[in-house]
Protein: GNAT family N-acetyltransferase
Amino acid sequence: MPGPVFLNGDRIALRPIEEADLEFLQAQVNDPTIWRSIGRSRPLNGEQERDFFDNVICGDDTVDLLIGVDSTPIGTIGLFEFDWEARTAEIGYWIAPDHHDRGYGTEATECVVEYAFDQLGLHRIAAHVFEFNDPSQRLLETVGFTKEGVHRDADFVDGEYQDVYWYGLLEDEWRRQRRDGGD
Structure:
């Protein structure tokens, strides 16, 4: 996987997203499994992917990382919507369909949560997921997130309104879970 590794897990490596990754990112975000789960209902062309890279990924307002396994890119994970005064952010991720159900998303999320609390000094991390995305709900709950609420009919995906489930994880809950879990 080109570029320096920023965070390491047991089986995954997280590194900054580079210009060379744009083709992979565009191909994946146009896969129905991905665009549906992230709520993007329109296709993304190369120029739009480049704009996202230039204006969001290369900006200072997010932390965007590529998830890799054995030098192969398999997804992304990031922190955004930072509120530095309240010490909060939101986490988001996706894994390429060929790599689902292997625990890579959980491992990447655990790495980024640890980074967010230990290095960035965050107090709370939020996440949202569509009602139909059971695997993402399980991932968040496995990492220790608590389902906090539902925004009813908050998004329109596949011709239907979908509820959006909101999750949260507080730093002290995460530390207690790690301590009690023996991690």
The chain has a mean pLDDT of 91. The chain has one domain: 7-181. Helices lie at 22-29, 32-38, 46-57, 104-118, 134-143, 171-181.
